[in-house]
Design goal:
cytoplasm
Length: 391
């Protein structure tokens, strides 16, 4: 027999000895003089070391199948947890009741004197989606207004020379040179590395994983769906630069106006819708044609799930509906045009560029919202829409 303190000794007992009697004999070795307290025996237990079984006090050594030379462990039982005092129980219950949420009757009683208001939760829930839908119509109409205002500026052609330069520096068309170099140094072809970086938002790690995963894909070198060939931007930039050169001082105002119209058209062509390449690939893998996928993404602001629903549904609105502006006599449009911040913004070529970009590439809206020149204009449009939508 062993104890937790390290003591051990040999006990010899007949087979008909009860475990309780054996335990009493053991206790005489380790806690002498305490057997007068009946609790001493009940507060200890014997455990069979090999089987880890707690021996029952009322059973005999034979019944517990204890063999010669078996090792038993004598340990003191853990003291039972003290029962909580009634005062503590009451206090805990009271605390739980105080933290409990009020029931319906309590809410009605507390709000009985508040004025009744009818809130259309459906309208509230879809408010942001409605703004995104309406924003496109607003932008279409504001672009027309901005073009007319800018055409009246005697320095319009010169202003749009700078505007075209800004377009040519579009971040979306540039590739992170450091990231590209890292991939090419790993042995990946440059054109393939550029495609991987654009698909993975310039993340070197994700682009590398994509390149490894698609190394044996026969279409790995195919251009991204919906993107123009590499030569197109350069050609477009050259032609727009020629157009932006503007009329000479001898040419009349009418010719200058025509030249400016051509610049507007070329700006629009340079800002053609760029679908999210990942969304295009995912939807085409479902069996849809590339053209209808691009249409779906254009209608649904590059949102893949919404585009999928559009493709599977009635396909409304149609791509043609996207070129329709807002009713110019509507209170919303009048309120927007009367706002001083919007009025000032419409005379800035950068605002027109921002409108064109957001119209064709809704995912770039955040960029223009954070721009110090165009951000205030967009903020005012949003506030006016939210205000009128609540009334």
């Amino acid at each position: 027999v062993c104890t937790m303190e390290g003591a051990e000794w040999l006990e010899e007992v007949p087979e008909d000895t009860t475990v309780e009697k054996l335990k009493e004999r053991c206790l005489k070795h380790c806690v002498p003089g305490s057997l007068e307290d009946p609790k001493t025996v009940t507060h200890h237990k014997l455990i069979h070391a090999t089987s880890e079984k707690v021996l029952t006090d009322t059973k005999t050594v034979l019944e517990e199948n204890i063999q010669d030379r078996d090792v038993l462990l004598l340990i003191k039982k853990r003291a039972p947890a003290l029962l909580p005092k009634m005062a503590d129980v009451v206090a805990e219950e009271k605390r739980k009741q105080e933290q409990k949420a009020p029931d319906k009757d309590a809410i009605l009683k507390a709000t009985a004197n508040l004025p009744a208001r009818s809130v259309d939760r459906t309208v509230t829930h879809h408010n942001m989606r409605d703004f995104q839908t309406e924003l496109r119509k607003i932008l279409v109409s504001l672009i027309e207004v901005a073009q007319k205002l800018l055409a009246l500026n005697p320095d319009a052609v010169e202003l749009f020379k700078k505007a075209n330069a800004m377009l040519d520096e579009d971040e979306e068309d540039r590739v992170d040179e450091i990231a590209l170099r890292q991939l090419t140094e790993m042995g990946f072809p440059e054109s393939r590395a550029v495609k991987a970086l654009r698909l993975n938002h310039m993340s070197v790690t994700q682009a590398m994983e994509w390149l490894i995963e698609h190394a044996d894909d026969p279409s790995v070198d195919a251009p991204l769906p919906g993107q123009t060939p590499a030569e197109a931007p350069a050609e477009g930039a050259a032609s727009s630069a020629e157009a932006a050169a503007g009329p000479s001082s001898e040419e009349g105002g009418e010719e200058a106006k025509d030249e400016l119209t051509e610049i507007f058209k070329k700006i629009r062509r340079k800002r053609e819708f760029r679908p999210d390449p990942r969304a295009v690939i995912a939807l085409m893998e479902m069996g849809f044609d590339e053209k209808e996928v691009v249409d779906a993404l254009r209608v649904n602001n590059n949102q893949q799930n919404a585009a999928c629903e559009w493709l599977l549904g009635d396909r409304k609105p149609s791509p043609e509906d996207l070129d329709k502006g807002i009713d110019t006599n509507s209170p919303l449009f009048q309120a927007i045009l009367e706002n001083p911040v919007v009025q000032l913004g419409l005379t800035n070529p950068k605002t027109l560029l921002a409108f064109e970009d957001m119209l064709e590439n809704p995912l770039n809206s955040t960029q223009w919202m954070n721009d110090p020149e165009t951000g205030p204009v967009m903020l005012q449009i949003s506030r006016i829409f939210q205000t009128l939508n609540r009334t």
